[in-house]
Structure formats: C-alpha cells, structure tokens
Amino acid sequence: MDNFATDIKKYLEKIFGNTIDEASERQIYQALMVITRDRLAEKRFESNKKLKESQQKRVYYMSMEFLVGKTLRNNLYNLGYEDEIKHFLAKHGFSLERIYNIEPDPGLGNGGLGRLASCYMDALTSNDYPIMGFSILYEFGIFKQVISDGWQQEYPDNWLDLGRYGLLYRNDEEIEVKFYGNTKEEWSSEGLHIRYEDYTAIKAEPYDLFISGYDSDTVNVLRLWKSKATGGFNMKLFEKGEYSKSLESEAIAESISKLLYPADDNDNGKALRIKQQYFFTSASLQQIVKNHYDTYMTLDNFAEKVVIHINDTHPSMCIPELMRILMDEYEYSWDKAWSITTKTFAYTNHTIMAEALEKWSVDLFQPILPRIYTIIREINNRFCKWCNDIGAAGELDEMSIIHNNVIRMANLCIVSSYSVNGVSMLHTEILKKDTFKSFNRIYPGKFINVTNGIAHRRWLGQANPELTRYLNKLLGVDFIKDLSSIDKLLEYQDDKAVLEDLENIKNIKKLQLAEYIKSSTAIKVDTNSIFDVQIKRLHEYKRQLLNALHIIYLYRMIKFNGLKPYPRTFIFSAKASSGYVMAKNIIKLICSISEIIEADPIVREYIKVVFLEDYRVSLAEKIIPAANVSEQISQAGKEASGTGNMKLMLNGAVTLGTMDGANVEIHNAVGQDNIFIFGLSSEEVEELFKNDYRAIDYYNNNQDIKETIDFMRTLDNGHTNFNYIADYLVSTDPYMCLADFESYKNTQKIVEDTYQDKGKWNKMSLVNIAKSGIFSADRATKEYVEKIWKIEKIK
Ligand code: AZC
To answer: Where is it localised (predicted)?
Structure first.
C-alpha cells in the first residue's frame, strides 16, 4: 500500500507535473484508475502464468453486453486497498467517494442479460476460475436518459472520455474480420478448398478490462474489440473508379463498434447488428483458436480444453465461425469439424418473448456473410436429414434452422451446443414444455436449469456498507466470502434489538436515497413512508403500468373517497428502448401522475411518485439498499428470471410479486409468510389467453377498475391525456393488467397493513436477507462449472 501512495504521487508528478496537494480531483481519478489497472495487469501476469503451465480447460464467455458498473470501487474493494487509500487521500484533503463519482458507468449493456454477465465474471474470478469475456468496445454505451416534461430523451453516452483509463490496448493482438465478397469452391487432388474473394476486411483492435476477484489471486480479462479500417482505402478499386466501394472498409469500420443497440428485445433485421455480431465473434474465435494452436500445435483436443459459452443468441455466429476456421483454415473435414464444434458450445437462453428470439432474413444475411451463410445452410440440411431419419420430420416447422427464408438463431444454438440452459426453474420448464418442446424430445438431457445469481459483494458489500458492517459484527461469519453463511441471521429473527437495528440501518439508507431524490427531482419524500420500488427496463410485460394503475386508484380514493392509507413513496426508474412508443408513453404517464400528486396538497400527504432518470448500475446501488417493497409484477410466464428481485431481497426488501421467474424460488426460500404473492399463475395466464381474454369484461364487471380507468381518462396535465393507454388496457393489452388488478390491489392493502406492524415487517425483512444465500452468483457459477463447463480452479 505504501507503494500505492508513492505510485499516485509519482504518476501525478510525471503526467501532470503536480504534487498531490496541487492536483485536481480529475487528476487523482486518472492516477487511481491507471495505477489500479497496472496493478491488476501485474497480478494478471502471475495468474496467467499458472494457467498456462497447468494447461487446464478454460471458459470463454461471449456476450454482446457486459454491464460492468463502475470499476474503481470494485477493484479497490477487491484488492483490499479501499480503506487505506481513503485515509491517504483524506490526509491530502480528497474524498475517495467524490473520486468514485467521477468514473462513468461503463454502460455496455441494456439490462438483466448484460448485468448477469458481469456478475458472473466477478464471481468466477473471486473463486479462481479461468474465464475470459469477449464483447465489443462500444464507443457509446446505453444512452443517457433525461426526462424532460415527463418524456424520455436520449443523449449519447460518451463513456470512454473518462472510462478509457481502465482499459489496456493490446496492439500485438489485432485481428482481421472479413465481410461481403464471394466464395469459390476449388477442387484439387487434396479435396475441396474454399476461396474467399473480394471481401471487405476490418481490423479488430483488442482492449482489455481487468476483472479483479475478492480475496483471490486471480485476475481475469474482459476483452473488448474496437473496429478500425484496415488502412485507408482500396487503391485498386479507386483506380477503377469505384470510389465509394474503395471507402467501404472505412465506412463499415466506423460504424461497427460505434454504439450499443438500445433495444433489448428485437433487432428488426438490422444489417449493422449482424455486422456487430460477426465482428466480435469472428475476432474472438480467431484469437481463441490461434492461442490454442500455439499452445498445443493441434486443434484435435480443442473441445477438451475450451468451452465457449454463448450468452443468448447474439454471439451465435461463433458456431459457423468455428466451423469455418476449422475447415477453411485448418483443413478439417466437415465431420471432424462438426464433432469438435458440438462439444465446444454451451448456450443460455434468457427470454421466451417471441420478438426477442433472433431471426435473420436470408436475403439480408447472405450477402454480408456469404461463407457463414453456406455453413449454416449445410448445418441445417444435415440436421433436417437427421430428423427425417429419426422420424422427427413432422416437427421441422418448429425445429429447422432456416424456415421460410429466415434463419432462426436459437435453433442454430440448440442444434450445435452440447448444453442449453434456462435461467430459473419456471423458465426452464417453459423452454422444455413449450418454446422448444420438440428439441427437448429429440435431445433428452440437453436442456438444464441454472437459476441466476448476483454478485453479492457489489450488491451488498459495496452498495450497503452499513448493513455489511453490522452483519459482520453480529454474525461473526465471513458471508462476503460465502453468502450461504448469512443464514445464521435466522437465529435472530425474534430478537427485538436486532430487528430494530436492521430497521435503523434501513432508515439510514432511506435517508440517503431521500437526499438523492431531493437533489435530482426536487421532490421531498417522507422517510417514514413505505419505499416501494420498481426498477428495471420499461417493458409492457414487466407491467409498470399495473403499478401505475394502482397508484391512480389510490389517488382517486384519497381525493374523493376519504381513503387515508399509510404513507407510501412509489419509486420508479427505467429506460425505454428509443423506438418503443408504448414504453415511452408509460414513462410519461408515471411522470404525470407524479406531478399531479405533487400539486395536490391532500393526496401528497399519503402518496408520492418519484421517477428517477437514467437508471444504471450506480443508481441501482443507491436505490436497492433503501427499498422496503420490491415490485416484481410481470405477467406470469414472461420474466425469465429477474435479478433485481434477488438484489432487493438481499438488502431486506420484501417481494410483492407474481409467481414468475425467480420469484417462484424466492417464494420457496422465504416461505409463504415472508413474501406477497398475487395474480394468475403462468398456467392460468395460458388458459385465459386460449379462451380469449376479454379485458373489457374486467372493466364492466369490476367497479374499482371501471372507476379507475374512467378517472385515468380525466387526468390531463397540459396537453397530454391518457385515453390511449386506457383504451389499450381495456382492449388489446396482452399482458392482462386488468385480469390481475383486483388481486394486486388487495395484496397491496395487505402490504400496507403488514408494514404498520413493525415487528412483523422487520422479521419478514430479516428472513429475506437470511435466505438470500442461494441467489449468490457464486452458487450460480458453481453450477455452470459443475454441470456444464467441467472446469477446475486455477491451481
Ligand atoms: C433478461 C431477462 O429478461 C431477465 O428475466 C433475466 O433475469 C436476465 O435476462 C438474466 O438472465 N433478458 C435480457 O436482458 N435480454 C434478452 C435478450 O433476453
């Protein structure tokens, strides 16, 4: 640590010509980022040496998204330097907290899938497993959301400006990726050769982000590829007068790593998205194969030493790319290449929402990736033939990879991977029984479940130091190392003093959040009120609208029917995909309700609505520790798992939810008495759907619904009215908010009543914390290690 302080001083002198006492916060930030990165690079060198020597099997985790969150606090925390640096800086008049705030959130992801990838990198590293992540170095991450007059506006997120100090550019490992052009088959005495001509080559430049582990010697790497033109324009084409084509490489290169697609549910057949996916999977695969070959001088043992994990279908082009490399570059036969490929890949499915299951039209795909297309076609031909042979031809409508001139990427993944997993028990059951039922029949045992988990070191250790310190002292076990030991807390479930302490800590976190709310929205919230939190992407299926509808119901009852509920603060935070009109309208509705209530002196005594803009990892870290109620109210069967539900539970919030995703397992863990469950089950939803759900009947037959919707139509702040949303609720809403409204409303009343029994509530909260052990990413990744990857810790 002495060295660390010396290094900071040296860096400031060398780079800025400053002593520490003359330095600015910005300069200190840069020094800390660079020195931490270099420390990790040194540690990485050591752990990588061991890894090379042991020649053990490794996992490569492919994901279009890694929602890393701020890195500096995490790294200093993991390296165990945090307290000393805090002290050192304080001596010179600097606050480490303020320095942390300078770092932008690397927003290289949209939501759950991206954050899960990062939680897993953290957990695997802390547990000394050899994993390397691959993704894209997006110049612009997920947009910055600004709420203006209640509407979401998107601004570019130029995170590299300050975020680049954590990255290490590896100019020795650049790779070329090829697009467009034609392939020619050439037969010689040695067999078939594929010649690829007239292609456009793009350079992939690697930037490494080091991933530190808690109390561990291991440092893993997340490699992010940046696209670059391969050096100016094509002189030959230029001479031929094909000017625009001569600049093609530059134009494509410019765009590929420019920005993260802000839609997490569909790609609408965008050519750029195909290019992004192939760009990063091809660069990564070429790198992996080369490293392997350099080590073993053969690829015959590839599948024994390498697992490639495909995080949803976005990286699925890894599969034909490996086939291409094996056949076209290393002269493997189809059968040998296929045998290696099908032992190498494992695939996680994160959603059953039809619009999110990726499909590419052949007409769009083939010209961009001609060779990859022929490989996919051949995989499909052989698969279809095999289905014929085993008597499954009747199910090819569901299973063929190419269908009606469309490539179905999930089908490619299932056919080519040795393992397919869902992310919660319910989700995996739905995959097996419904979404992919024919596949499950022909590939018995291929589908398995690994329920998601979260990095508790970030979501409790760092986000809630007050609770962590308290539990450390109380329990005397190292639950940061091993979260399962937190169940010792159960021994105190009837201990009044402990329950009160926990309540006090919750109040401290509520106070901190209230200050943040005040500074960012000017709304003053009552910290004695129930903090009721719904934070996640804005999607119809997640049903922020059901929550909003219930608030409108309360508003009306308070204003006109003399209802005096226990005070509650409804806190929302959510980004909507920029092209998702309904989602943006729902944000507007929530913001309008917030405004209307603020303007009403009677109603605002009881309820408040806060919409916090720009939801991101660092904001979640502020909200989650302060929550009393965790709203997980998706339509049953639609949320694959959820992970926010786990983070909230870990911090003592009590779940109000449907029997959906991992809520089912939270319910199993805490028991009926420590969770609020409402609404239709996934089977009931299916039934109702089949029997023609008629929203209007709920409107006609339920007085509260009718009055609430009618009242909603009268809400009008300025130029916006909400008839459009009211119409949707009573007609086409496929997520059936009205079918669950009565049950939701009644359960909300139970929540309110229970909260007033402080002893009872505090005990529920305690049980939630105590039972959160199984939702640690340590447990989840251990299951991946044992059930799927079969790898060992770095020796
Ligand atoms: C999400 C799921 O919606 C969420 O339920 C799950 O917890 C999370 O993945 C992690 O598994 N999915 C996505 O973010 N995106 C896609 C394309 O599925």
So the answer is: Cytoplasm
